[in-house]
Amino acid sequence: MIVAEQKPLDEIRDLIADAGKVLVVGCGTCVTVCFAGGEKEAGILATSLRMASKLNGNAQDVTHLTVQRQCEWEYLDPIEEQIRQAEVVVSLGCGVGVQALAEHFPQAWVVPGLNTSFMGLPTEQGVWEERCAACGSCILGLTGGICPIARCAKQLLNGPCGGSQDGVCEVNAETPCAWQLIYDRLKAHDRLDLLMEIQPPKDWSTSRDGGPRRITREDLRLVAEQVE
Amino acid sequence: MSDTSTNGYKSGSRLEQVLRAGHFAVTAELGPPQGADGEIIRKKARLLKGLCEAVNITDNQTAIVRMSSIGAGAIVLQEGLEPVIQMTCRDRNRLAIQSDLLGAYALGARNVLCLTGDHQSFGNHPTAKNVHDLDSVQLIQMVVEMRDQGRFQCGDEIKGVAPRFFVGGAANPFGDPFEWRPYRLGKKAKAGVDFIQTQLIYNVERFSKYMEKVRELGLHEQVYILAGIGPLKSPGMARYMRDQVPGLDVPDHLVDRMTAAASGISKEDKAARREAWRKEGIQIAIELVQQLKGIEGVAGVHIMAIEWEEAVRPIVEGAGLFPRPEPEPLPTADDPAD
Ligand code: SF4
Ligand code: SF4
Questions:
Q1: What superfamily does domain A2-118 belong to in CATH?
Q2: CA within 20 to 30 Å of B62's CA: A82, B4, B8, B146, which one?
């Protein structure tokens, strides 16, 4: 899932400073699961913003609602009226959700309430870790299902750097060394031969380096005549 | 395909010649300044000239911005000393690395050390974006192919003169997983690396175990291994390296020796204590050189006296490695036939 965390309240207040009427829009999917932007968080944020503005002597009308999935336009149609009435919309969706709102409602001023952090999973209650960097050409088949692109601080492809020590990454003692994990797993599966092969320079063109990405599936597209 | 030989040498560098002749080689390290004063490089080069075959010029070491390795290397060449250009994958993508290496070769550099690079979070620009387009193994392979096949990484032919470097890599025998380290060296050998400079070695016993495996794999016959030597400056530095630096193994007995060096000298007499520590640090370094020299497969030493270039002379002399051998000059080494 996509993992995000809420921006500091002051930063959100700055983003909505000029508005009298504010709408906070939560999202019912990934950011609900990571407790950053679901119905509950949207409600708490709206209340906090209201209280803060009142204390400031400049009361803002802050309401909130949550859609099932902010990143698909069909889920956004039903909230058109509420969006129209707001001077500023604070999206508690991930970066995709913010942009879906802005794109779907060109007249609305949409600002982000979250910092979208990574694609990952909860490893224990209250802890989320990155797992995939969407490089567009998955090599997990070579690395025992552990991603060195997302999880090695240097995105190495040919084994651990010299700083790997006691299982942790030299960059951060809280982070396991991805290559130690890969090594252990390949060894357990008796597949260390995979590590002996030199992995050639990666084709980063499928990653963000190739520019914004797009997938077109002709088999799924609606042909013009069918639409009519 | 362009000619891959330089009078039978891969690069014709002095370092290559000395190693090929079977001499025990010495390289040293020169850290460029955090400023644009070339005179600092000249001064350091004069301290090191004649004591080593070549001198590594670090590339934004520990991710702190310093004068470029190639720029400083060109000055070192003017001083009559041979540079080992260091090139990390942290700051440059494959385009920048290749173009910089063309320039370095044109300026006269003949050795390059291919490194991953310290993470930027350790340095003075922790908010920077890193590159890591290639890793060190891929970098080695690329520089070797530029030399041996006259091709850029993309496969295009290099027009005219191809850069013929003596290609180096690093190895940390004490990194984890320990048992895999010799195989990682093997990967670099497979990529075509010519020489290896190791991380600082203080734990000779553990390094010997590593070398045992390296010999078992026959790697000492494929690459020249230069063992890393670093004179300790003080007990504080020894403790710091033992406790804080990932990938370094400093045994307690060396920390104790450094501490004992200043015993009996009053705490007030800072200069005398400093002097005593440094003397002991150099003595330890000399002993390490002698021990490492005795290990089969160790082809030389790489002395890293960081911001203490004066220490290189007493170490080289003390270890009986002075004067340095004079390799036969190559008639057309600087003029590769193409
Ligand atoms: S290899 Fe690429 S696609 Fe696969 S998990 Fe890693 S970043 Fe994601
Ligand atoms: S310590 Fe491990 S995870 Fe960290 S940069 Fe090195 S190889 Fe990558």
A1: Response regulator (3.40.50.2300)
A2: B146
